């Protein structure tokens, strides 16, 4: 909090007056993060093919998680696995947001299957889990120092394993 108030040039009471408690501040930060850094997820869902959705999502994650001058990784992934008991409500909120994104991706893959864009033997649930495992794995690796080139190989490999029609 000291670093934040110093960077903003305000006092702690001013920060709390503007944002409420630490939890409220975190939720506002997460809202802003989703609106700015995760906009590519919404755009990915609009791609014309299921593979296009996956590629747009993974390449968007790659760009967001390795952007120069910013922390590496993903705020949501980090807080969904690194929260202690004192922050259970934050963890629950992060998991709820992720569940909403996963539901949207699942619905998009189900539509792709219904439209014949995915083979009959491909399960949208499994495909969604696969993509999220790649997405989350990239975030953890980026946060622990993986290079952009290493993560690009992961994206390329993940897409090479995509179920072809």
CATH class: Mainly Alpha
The residue fraction in helices comes out at over 70%
The radius of gyration is 18 Å
Query: Would you identify the CATH architecture?
Result: Orthogonal Bundle
- The unreliable regions are none
The average pLDDT value, as a whole number, equals 81
Shape: elongated
Secondary structure class reads mainly alpha
Count of DSSP strands: 0
**What is the strand content?**
under 5%
Largest sheet: none
Query: Which homologous superfamily in CATH is the superfamily?
Result: Tetracycline Repressor, domain 2
Please tally the helical runs, counting DSSP H or I stretches of 4 or more residues.
9
Q: How far is the N terminus from the C terminus?
A: 52 Å
CATH topology category name: Tetracycline Repressor, domain 2
What is the H/E string? HHHHHHHHH
Please indicate the count of domains: 1
């Amino acid at each position: 909090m000291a670093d934040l108030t110093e960077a903003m040039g305000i006092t702690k009471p001013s920060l709390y007056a503007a944002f409420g408690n630490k939890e409220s501040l975190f939720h506002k930060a997460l809202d802003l993060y989703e609106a700015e850094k995760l906009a590519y997820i919404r755009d990915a869902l609009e791609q014309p093919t299921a593979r296009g959705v996956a590629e747009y999502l993974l390449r968007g994650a790659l760009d967001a998680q390795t952007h120069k001058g910013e922390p590496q990784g993903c705020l949501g992934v980090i807080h969904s696995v690194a929260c202690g008991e004192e922050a259970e409500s934050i963890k629950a909120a992060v998991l709820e947001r992720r569940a909403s994104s996963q539901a949207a991706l699942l619905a998009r893959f189900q539509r792709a299957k219904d439209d014949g864009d995915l083979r009959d033997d491909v399960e949208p649930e499994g495909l969604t889990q696969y993509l999220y495992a790649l997405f989350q794995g990239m975030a953890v690796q980026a946060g622990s120092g993986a290079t952009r080139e290493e993560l690009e190989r992961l994206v390329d490999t993940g897409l090479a394993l995509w179920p072809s029609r």
